[in-house]
Amino acid sequence: MARRVVTAVMAALALGTGLLAQTPRPPEPLLSKLLRIAGLTAAPSQMRGPADNAAVGNIWIASVDRRSVRALTTDGGYRSPIFINDTPLVLAIRGNSVVRLGAQGGSAIPLPDTPNIVKLVGIDATSPGEVIVLLDAPARSSPLGVLSLQSGKVSPLPYDDSSEQQRRLLAQIRAQDRTYGETRVYTKMETKPGLSRPIEWTDVFVTRGAGSPQNVSACDGANCAQPALSPDGRSVAFVKVQD
User: Fold this and answer.
1) Cβ of 109: how many Cβ atoms within 10 Å?
2) Residue 114: what pLDDT?
3) Dihedral sign, CA of 133, 180, 103, 57?
4) How many CB atoms lie within 10 A of CB 48?
5) Taking the alpha carbons of 64, 72, 153, 114 in that order, is the dihedral positive or negative?
6) Is the separation of the CB atoms in 78 and 58 below 8 Å?
7) CA 191, CA 200: separation in Å to the nearest integer?
8) What is the C-alpha separation between 108 and 100, in angstroms, rounded?
9) What is the rounded distance in angstroms from the CA atom of residue 69 to the CA atom of residue 234?
């Protein structure tokens, strides 16, 4: 009898342990997830400068280590490029569509029309078929959503406009300064003498750890903006803005 009781207790304990092992982890808080995906600071402490999300042009790819740069597109009209996780593909917005581009160039592959998307924020490695996006949303609607690359459907994400922390997060998403671990990607105003007045433009810079800032775009008079770092940290996609 005693042996049966011990056996039953051990079985119950084993079952309980199994149930505990199978208990799913609590979902990652939305704020933390957006910070991680977008390459933002863990605790946004101040509002960022104005964004340049509406500017369009051609997408260029800079190799940070090789210090080289090349055009990915030549037909213009692109904005908001991001890398698709660990693949040689880039997503961008062109007109009212999100397009997928091979890193070696080639034709764009139109995805379903998504007219309300202002900016592609990033892709979570755990959900490669979904893109976090910034929306041109009406008042009292969420400015953040999730785009399904398969269906083209955009599902709004929860957003509380009364939360100062979430407003700061939104301001960072709209801006162009990004921090991925020890790597910072940002734009900076450059200038050189002109015939009648100084010529000003924006270039894309990368800073790794305590290293010196590296101008990876070298646009020399043309505005370059909307940078995004590849998952391996070796490449930066950006837009060379059309005049």
Assistant:
1) 12
2) 82
3) positive
4) 18
5) positive
6) yes
7) 4
8) 6
9) 12
Supply the pTM of this predicted model.
0.80
- Amino acid in position 130: E
Amino acid at 147: L
Q: Do residues 97 and 113 touch, judged by C-beta distance below 8 A? A: yes
Closest CA to 206 of 181, 172, 169, 223: 181
Q: Could you tell me where the DSSP H helices lie in the chain? A: 2-22, 30-38, 164-174
- Alpha helices, H only, 23-133: 30-38
∠ Cα 104 106 111 (to 5°): 110
User: How many CA within 13 A on the CB side of residue 112?
Assistant: 8
Going residue by residue through the chain, which has 243 residues, state the pLDDT in tens, using 9 for 90 and above: 545 543 443 443 344 444 445 556 666 666 666 666 666 654 444 444 445 667 999 999 999 988 899 999 999 999 999 998 877 789 999 998 999 998 667 778 888 888 889 999 988 777 888 899 999 988 788 999 999 988 888 988 888 888 888 888 888 888 888 888 889 999 999 998 888 888 899 999 999 999 999 999 999 999 999 999 998 889 999 999 987
Q: Which residue has the tokens 């009406």?
A: 138
Note whether 50 and 187 are within 8 A (CB): no
Domain ranges of the chain: 29-241
Q: Are 203 and 60 in contact (CB under 8 A)?
A: no
